[in-house]
Amino acid sequence: MDLRPNGSIGVLVTGAALLACGACGARTDIAPLPGSDGGSTLRQSTRASQTESDRSSQGPSQTDTGGVDAGCGAPASPRVLATFGTGISNQIPFALAVASGSVYVELLFGSVPDAVVRVPATGGPPERILMGANGTPSMSPFSEAPLVTDGAFLYMVGVDFTASGIGSSPTVTTYDLATGAVGAIPDPPGTSPLDVSVVRATNEPGAFYLTGSEFDPSTSDLVHWDGTRAVVVGVLPEWCYDLQIVGGSVFVLGAHGFYELPVAGGTASEITPVTFGMGSALIGANSTSVFYTVDGAEILRRTVATGATISVASVPGAALDSGSAWADDAYLYFGQSQSWSGLLRVPVGGGPVETFWSSDRRIDAVVTVGCEVFWLAGDDFPDGLPGELLVARE
Questions:
Q1: What is the mean pLDDT of residues 65-80?
Q2: Distance CA 61, CA 42 (A)
């Protein structure tokens, strides 16, 4: 099972055009649940406070290629699928998910509640499908946490300013992709409402999320929503704010530690200590490994089956988090947090950093689906350039 944010994120792609390359090394953003026969996975990344990331089952199982292109061919020239308003008009795209031949983008509207729009994966004008509403728990303005999907629903963290007065995040908002119905995941029985920091989806109906409060950082709960009920499946020893899932393991990042626990529930074990505010982040995951950094520069890869950890690359100034990065079975994609230089990538087995798309734009979200790479280029305030959704072949 896989979990962001950025996004990672969940992604389920069933459109034939997106499945044309079955051996590209890409993964879906939703991981198979233990005991399921889910196939390859691809991780969704969105900006989080993001993230992740999530997985979807997509065709035959793929093997981690260690960064070797498995058959996508030469990269195609990027093309723009949709254009959004500039920051001046408060239409800033920052979260991305893909499902059933459509791309879903969350837009930040400044002081106005956020919106989610749908764009055909082949391109076209954005269609608004959801608009936040202050003071309504299931329709609260959506936070800059992962926008994820299990293929049946979109999930997003809600931030209710009016009801709480302090901008807490008490809910996970759900959107039914078939009917358009909007709802909210109920609190687990016997628990009090707490802030939700991140949500990730799986390839079976449902999602996982973390609850807790940075103002009371003693514990965090890992909650599983199976589409019918919410259950606490793990308790972390401090406030935690991001997670990824690979196979039967959940990886959780807290203020002081990086943890692993069984996806079915159990005791969390610390992998390594971290220092909040010093660059530590869960970057993403593919079908075999989780990627993280403890200093904001060195990308580390931990193979889940063996626990072996290697250094993939050191990239000072990179935007390394599960919001603006994405890992598949061939490459890790990311942007820069300081001097914007477009979309970069590095083989997951280590190697030189490549420029996939050269531009002085900010990368707000990226996801790979088969041989296709989708990403959001942030709007440029000084030049008033609009935000864009782009796609290119891997």
A1: 68
A2: 11
